[in-house]
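for the record, two folds in this file. i put them one after another cuz i was lazy. first one right below, seq on top, structure tokens after. the second one comes after a little note so u can tell where it starts
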Amino acid sequence: MTRTILTYGLISGLIIIFGIIGTIALNGGAPHDNVWLGYLIMLVALSSILVGVKQHRDQALGGVIRFGPAFLMGLAIALVASLAYVAVWEVYLAATHYQFMDAYAAQVLAAKRAAGVTGPAYAKAVAEMETLRAQYANPLFRLPMTFVEIFPVGLLVALVSAALLRAPGFLPARPPVSAA
């Protein structure tokens, strides 16, 4: 079970981080401005929770699993995926000399300008971005913030996966093909 958790958690985490970094690279080094794209990448990658729990149910448990054990296994896969995401994101930040937050703040402020925000409202946005930039420089702020970006999605996928996979008829195990 541990091997399955680690395997599917690492696969999921790496797919997510390379998907997110890929969108940043395609956007010329600036953060992608489509939040839904980021969460779609996470959701697709975290579907490995369903696959991992199903594999465990079918191969180790004879095709039957209760909600609690399925949920805990899904949660463990989500935890590994989230920790992998955080670790690789930190490597990416270090490799890019922590320029992400500068690019993010510039993008947010440019969007405010394009929306016609000026005067005190724009000054407030600048102050908020400066505060966020200072907070993001602190790993005690950045690491949990990065973890919280992904873990709730994994929690949701673990809940849905456990609810679906507790029914033995949902994606039933295929009997092995006999050599004739």
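(here's the note) second protein begins now
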Amino acid sequence: MPDQKPSRLVAVRDTTGTVVGAVLGLVPHVLHHVGLIAGTAFLTGAGGNAALYLVGLLLSIPMLRRIHGRFRTWHAPAIAVAVFTAMFLISALVVGPAISADSGTTDAPSPGPTPTVQHTEHHT
């Protein structure tokens, strides 16, 4: 059986699938940084990270099935899930806190009077 080149349609389909997979892979990473937009109670902390990890895992099921079909073993999808988990943990535990850390903040008192001081001054 001679080797056949994939048709142009197959190449476009595979390229489109790759691009969509890459975008869907970035969604959980990007979403866990939007705490102020989507609500800090939902997306911040361990619960929010766990929820977004599960969303990312669910969105990767079609890719994992395709990997399984290509390699005919569950080892390859398991490796892909392990890599996804490691990258998500690095993003959530290292990159996210580094980006959102307050740098240069001090506990110095504010230069102006506090509202309580202003309020009591006009009573004396």
